[in-house]
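USER: For my understanding, would you kindly supply a protein sequence with its structure tokens?

ASSISTANT:
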Amino acid sequence: MLQFGHGRACNREAKRQTRHMFRKVSHRIASLSLAGLVAAMPVSAADLPAPLTEADFIAFDDAQARLGQLLFYDKILSGNRNISCGTCHHHDFGGTDGLSLGIGEGGIGVGPERRPGEGDDRVRKRIPRNAPALWNLAHEDIRVLFHDGRLEVSDLYGNGFDTPAQEWLPPGLETALAAQALFPMTAQFEMAGNVGENEVAGAVNDRIDAAWPIIAKRVRTIPAYGEMFVAAFPHIDSPEQVGIVEIANALAAFMGTEWRNFDSPVDAYLAGDTGALTEPQRRGMELFYGDAGCSACHAGPLLSDQQFHALALPQFGPGRTRAHDPYVRDVGRVGKSNRLEDSYRFRTPMLRNVTLTAPYGHNGAFPTLEGIVRHHIAPRESLVRWTPDMAHLPDIPWLAPVDFLVQDDPIERRRHAAVLDLAPQARTEAEIADLVAFLGALEGVTAKTRPLGRPETVPSGLPVD
């Protein structure tokens, strides 16, 4: 699977197995330490996940991560050179953009103040889904990415992953995070732009993999980037050898280290510090892992089962449908699987630093943690009470007729509301407050202090958002 030659691949696999063995030992030790906490709380230690450790994560090269930091914020990766990965996954907003549905290619500014542009360059569609958080995506157990899971670790196509690129995904991508990094570059409304505007968009229109060599050439012909790739990748002897695979692996090295964080009060508690949580946070944890049943889906050390569930979240926006689907709606996992039973189901999000990544839901339907908690407790009542002003959608007059069009279709509303994996619960106001307090305790002490941060400048000379 790797480009680096058999010896390096074997070394990496040996290191991975060593990390995995160490992780198992660490988790066993953690489980033993948790056993001593049983008397301190009604929730059994067996109900709690083992704490995360460095051994749980893929190891990356520091030089590749520093290179990835620059690429992450460099608009050279976009078709029209006007948007970067960091535009929608910005440090100032916890690795997201603070919007329900993002404003992609053609927009101006960053975060909740981002605007849709004007004239021929203005945006033509909102991004159909909320910008997903990047926290801890380099965990060794991550097997599926995107809200609908359209990227999975798999040998189906012989390149290590099942993705929208199918057999055209290039070999040599070291991680799922690296494979994921390729797709925003080829998405029309995210980074590629519209056909006729630039050579990247035109190439994507021909075949998805035709765009990546164009982007790679842009990068490697910038002298500073060429030198950094030669220095960071042992198998690269000259800039001419740099391809999209090295770019993606560098981006993954940055994302995998920059957004790694597990020093929250909850993590401290799991590691044995019984005083790490306040009383409301501790009560919230008991509910989360007990009667409220939150951990049935938000399971394990990552607080996600990496499965797909229907929550009856309000529908709005342009939607993301199956091919040839004429509806303005989002059908979720079925768009990838083509299995009817996957309709309206979305991947369970991980929850560390959830306080930094509002709004919430696959489409950012709820602006507050309390709102999304209340929806989980009484989903059908919440769906009825939800109002469009709860969505954070910057005004785009030429897109406004589509924004809430799905709400006007009674058949689609009934079909959507009928698919629900949550049972209603009777919770007091105090219990809701405790659950929100527990979620707040998942914010890392150092979450707002990232190892590399946002660069002031990038080698292309393009402006940094």
